[in-house]
Amino acid sequence: MILMAGILGILAFDDVWNVSRFLYYGLIGLQHRGYSKSGIAILNKQRNIFTKLENVAPEDLEIKDLNGWAGIGYAGIRNSYPITIDNGAIVVDGMIDDNNVLNHVIREPENAIDDIKKPISFIAISKDGQLIAYRDELGLKPLSIGGFGFDLAVISSEPTSMFVIGAEFKREINPGELVIVDKYHIESKQVRIPRKSYCTIEYVYQARIDSMINEREIYDLRVKIGEELALEYPINADSVIGVPETALPFAIGYSKKLNIPLDLGFTRTGSPIRTMLSSDAFLKIVGVQLKLNPIKSAVKGKRIILIDDSMVTGTTLKNTIFNLRKLGAKEIHVLIGSPKLVSQCPYGVEVPDEKELISANLNDETIARVLGADSIHWLSIEGLFKAIGHRDLCLGCMTKKYPW
């Protein structure tokens, strides 16, 4: 089962609270991690758990009948979370072959973690009023903790869900750390020895640009990636354009480093759509046009540096280049702010099968021709290390070498 998800847990320290709206807006702050399915499980004053699962984006989730002082939420590509487990409910970011291994998370969390054989993060809510959260020992699946002073505790995949509801981000949960929160205290225990191997895709694509992942500010990191691209591929051009929103900081870094004007090449149409996550073939083809419309005066007659965060099948990028050519772009040189994707991810990041990955099957010259670009270049792995500032990375989808 392939999963990409945002997970969230909120617990009030007094049962007079109703946290359903906090969960709702917090999930909207995570829907960039997976927008097609959502769900909430909430604990009421009578210690009953009510669950709502929908095949809709979090912003379309109906919550008017949910009322409780603690709960968990899910935004992703599956409609089976939250799932009911022994005396509670749970949400998971990662791959689980058998949901039965989760059944003892509430009663015996440490023993249950021993039975988990793949890297996952989870947040559970018990009928006794506990939030139980765990982050895998590699740190592949991010998890953070924060809150509203002495009123609410919040645990989330990214701090972005805390920002949108006005909560304060405290810290990231460490790889291999188990955290248990109730009305009276927060307990933390290192249950597995950390073997840090952070997911590269989180840095270059998945995390929101206003987020923090593994003690790195994502916006600053992506600006540095753009600077590394400028050092590796200094191309003579009239304008630098980043594909919104992920690649905009790449373009800013590249533009500053080489003193080439930065242009806003696109304007948004409708709600954000992450075409990399889509299983709809039509959406993959026209999705970029649905979410972004090119600006003619920004590209006509110009030599363009077009920067994107990643390239999977090449379908959306080909469509983007076609539209820029149609509006009169003179040259289009493509830079990708990550190394080539050449292999599927076994840990739950939505990377297609190798046969669908364009950079795993064609050389650079052929790819440029297929896309309609004048040239194409990828950030080197060494450039990635320099931008991030460490080498504790999982690069499996880029090197076929996996840490687990």
UniProtKB/TrEMBL annotation:
<keyword id="KW-0315">Glutamine amidotransferase</keyword>
<dbReference type="GO" id="GO:0006189">
    <property type="term" value="P:'de novo' IMP biosynthetic process"/>
</dbReference>
<keyword id="KW-0411">Iron-sulfur</keyword>
<dbReference type="InterPro" id="IPR029057">
    <property type="entry name" value="PRTase-like"/>
</dbReference>
<dbReference type="GO" id="GO:0009113">
    <property type="term" value="P:purine nucleobase biosynthetic process"/>
</dbReference>
<keyword id="KW-0808">Transferase</keyword>
<feature type="binding site">
    <location>
        <position position="246"/>
    </location>
    <ligand>
        <name>Mg(2+)</name>
    </ligand>
</feature>
<dbReference type="InterPro" id="IPR005854">
    <property type="entry name" value="PurF"/>
</dbReference>
<comment type="pathway">
    <text>Purine metabolism; IMP biosynthesis via de novo pathway; N(1)-(5-phospho-D-ribosyl)glycinamide from 5-phospho-alpha-D-ribose 1-diphosphate: step 1/2.</text>
</comment>
<dbReference type="Pfam" id="PF00156">
    <property type="entry name" value="Pribosyltran"/>
</dbReference>
<dbReference type="InterPro" id="IPR000836">
    <property type="entry name" value="PRTase_dom"/>
</dbReference>
<dbReference type="GO" id="GO:0004044">
    <property type="term" value="F:amidophosphoribosyltransferase activity"/>
</dbReference>
<feature type="binding site">
    <location>
        <position position="397"/>
    </location>
    <ligand>
        <name>[4Fe-4S] cluster</name>
    </ligand>
</feature>
<feature type="binding site">
    <location>
        <position position="345"/>
    </location>
    <ligand>
        <name>[4Fe-4S] cluster</name>
    </ligand>
</feature>
<keyword id="KW-0408">Iron</keyword>
<dbReference type="GO" id="GO:0051536">
    <property type="term" value="F:iron-sulfur cluster binding"/>
</dbReference>
<feature type="binding site">
    <location>
        <position position="308"/>
    </location>
    <ligand>
        <name>Mg(2+)</name>
    </ligand>
</feature>
<dbReference type="InterPro" id="IPR017932">
    <property type="entry name" value="GATase_2_dom"/>
</dbReference>
<feature type="binding site">
    <location>
        <position position="309"/>
    </location>
    <ligand>
        <name>Mg(2+)</name>
    </ligand>
</feature>
<keyword id="KW-0328">Glycosyltransferase</keyword>
<keyword id="KW-0479">Metal-binding</keyword>
<dbReference type="GO" id="GO:0006164">
    <property type="term" value="P:purine nucleotide biosynthetic process"/>
</dbReference>
<keyword id="KW-0460">Magnesium</keyword>
<feature type="binding site">
    <location>
        <position position="394"/>
    </location>
    <ligand>
        <name>[4Fe-4S] cluster</name>
    </ligand>
</feature>
<dbReference type="GO" id="GO:0046872">
    <property type="term" value="F:metal ion binding"/>
</dbReference>
<dbReference type="InterPro" id="IPR029055">
    <property type="entry name" value="Ntn_hydrolases_N"/>
</dbReference>
<comment type="similarity">
    <text>In the C-terminal section; belongs to the purine/pyrimidine phosphoribosyltransferase family.</text>
</comment>
<feature type="binding site">
    <location>
        <position position="199"/>
    </location>
    <ligand>
        <name>[4Fe-4S] cluster</name>
    </ligand>
</feature>
<feature type="domain" description="Glutamine amidotransferase type-2">
    <location>
        <begin position="5"/>
        <end position="184"/>
    </location>
</feature>
<protein>
    <recommendedName>
        <fullName>Amidophosphoribosyltransferase</fullName>
        <ecNumber>2.4.2.14</ecNumber>
    </recommendedName>
</protein>
<keyword id="KW-0658">Purine biosynthesis</keyword>
